[in-house]
Every structure is written in structure tokens, then in C-alpha cells.
Amino acid sequence: MIKYLGSKRLLATSLAEIASRLGAATASDLFAGTTRVGQALRRRGIRVITNDTAAYCEPLGRAYIEADERVDRERLRRLIAHLNALPGHRGYVTETFCERSRYFRPENGMRIDAIRAEIERVAGSAVERGLLLTSLLEAADRVDSTVGLQMAYLKCWAARAANPLELREPEPVPGPAGRVHVGEAAELAGAEVDLAYLDPPYNQHSYAGNYHVWETIARGDAPDHYGVACKRVDVRERRSPYNSRRLAWPALEQLVDSLAARWVVLSFSNEGFHDLDAVAALLARRGYVAALAVDAPRHVGARIGIHDPNGRRVGTVSHLRTTEAVFVCGPDRAVTERALDGSMPVAI
């Protein structure tokens, strides 16, 4: 699974346990990202609809939420072996992300260019295409030269960047197959599911900007770009209301009020735009609310510290821990409280 800021890697199992205790058989994950939570829900036997606006989330959803026993795994392995054997060629990824910027070494960039083009030729279905694109995204992530964000690349090459790009088969996820939606969360608010999980962006930093390289590889296009980081120009145009202090609360309020699900689980950081008491009050309009605060490490940038353009550490980071609040809202107080009882670690 690719490195991802905001990933619920450390919470996913506990969130799935909460959903199971609530008796959910179906769920929607409206801000799915890399599908970590969706995968955990699927492993608990819950049928999931995943959604996100980012193009790179679609193949991850196809590979880990939608793919099931109907996938011809032998054919998939043959295709991956074929893609791994392709000679590289210089294309948009090489020129933009290896020469103009420095996310990958050129030899790996050329491999990405060749493989990305060939996937469109050989993929036989949307799920197979998703599996192959996921294999490529994960392979590229293993040889990138970043700290996990694509707002910038490292001044000196990361050691892993010297490794040769190698595609691997995405592992099957047990459980019922779900489906993938790409669009605004509000478009799935009316989905008839038992539980809706919300993990909205909570500050001004856009995932479209943080992961613009994955967006370009997933789309397979050659967009105009800007700045040293060679971000897609459309990053400036496709901003989510959840990344705006002015627009985020009305968007969240409208979404929560329109959800058709019986149960709502929402996670939010105390470093976000919204006061956590206000979030609890919003959910209370739907039913009884229980909440748990989980101690968590801050993002990787905080742990690395602040450096000047010459790489010298300057200043100090104010804090290295944050609080992730998990809210559960539903019609039954006893069930809601029982769902949270002992389901979360004290600290992660």
C-alpha cells in the first residue's frame, strides 16, 4: 500500500471492529483514499462502497474492494511478468518527474512510462486494469524519493530510489466484493447502507497537490505543470470545499444531514478546521453520539523538522503528537456506547 498522509492504517482494524459491533452488513467509505478502512471492513464481512474524487483511488478500489474470485489470477501474473520485462522509454513521467523534478531516477521513470502505456493495451476489464495500475502505483511508491508527500522531493536521492522498479501482484482481500464510485461524497449520501464512514480532509492542504504524481500516473495523461515540484495545473482548479476554512463546515454539515445510513462513524483531527465539540453537536442532530480520543503521531513533516534551502535544520517543531477523535452516531445509545467500549488503543 502506498505511503499516504491521513491514512487510517493504525485505526483501520479498530474502525472495522466498531462497524462489526454495530451490526453493519453494508457500509460506504466516502473519503476512501487508499482504501485501508474499506479493506478492513471487507475483511470483517462487510460489503463496502468506496468513494473519492482522486483518480488514483479508483484503481486501488478496483484492486482491493471490487476484485473477487472471478479475477483470473494466472492471467494477471502473466501480464505482470510481461510488464516487468518491458524496456523503458522516455515519456512524460521521465521528462517531468525525473529530469525537470526528481521524484524517480530516470531508469525507473522510463519503466513507468513504458508500463503505463502498455496497461491500456493489455487490460481486459476495469478490475484487471485497476489491479495492474495498483501494481504500478505501489511499485513506483517503493522507489520514489520523497517523504511520502509529493509537494516536494528529497534534496538528495533516497536510498530506495536506486532499486529497480518491480511490479508485484496486489494481494486479494477476503470478504464480499464491493463497488467503487469516483465523485463527490455528497453523491453517495443517499446510498442505502447500514453505516457511513467519514474521514474528510481537515485543513487547507489538498490531496490533489500532495499526490499529484499518482494522479498523473493513474490518469495516464500529460498535463501542463507548474513550480519546482511540477504539480498539475488543474490542482489549482479542482480544490475541494473541505480544504477551505470558509467552505468546509457548510459542506460537512450538508453531508451529515443528508446521509441515509443508520449509523455514522466519523474521524477527525484536533488540528483540523473544526472544533471537535461542534462536530459532536452536528452529529447529535441525527442521534446519540459517543466519542473517543486517540493519541497519534503527527505527520512525517513534523517528525523530520524544519530545514532551510541548504538542508540545515532551523527552528523547532512545536509538538509531535496529535489527537484523532472517533465519533459514532446512531439511534441506539446502548449499542453506540458498546461499539466504542475497549475497541480503540489508548495510544498509537
Describe this entry's structure for a reader.
There is one protein chain. Helix content is 37%, strand content 14%. It is an alpha/beta fold and 348 residues long. The protein has two domains: 1-54 and 180-201 and 240-348, Rossmann fold; 68-172 and 207-238, no CATH class. A hairpin with a 4-residue loop joins strand 5 and strand 6. The longest helix has 17 residues, at 106-122.
CATH topology of the largest domain: Rossmann fold
* Overall body shape: globular
Task: Please state the structural category.
Answer: alpha/beta
Helical run tally: 13
* Mean pLDDT over all positions: 90
Please, what is the CATH homologous superfamily of the largest domain? Vaccinia Virus protein VP39
The gyration radius over C-alpha positions equals 21 Å
Helix content: 25-40%
CATH architecture of the largest domain: 3-Layer(aba) Sandwich
Major sheet attributes? 7 strands, mixed
Secondary-structure element string: HEHEHHHHHEEHHEEHEHEHEH
Low-confidence parts, pLDDT < 50 over ≥5 residues?
302-309
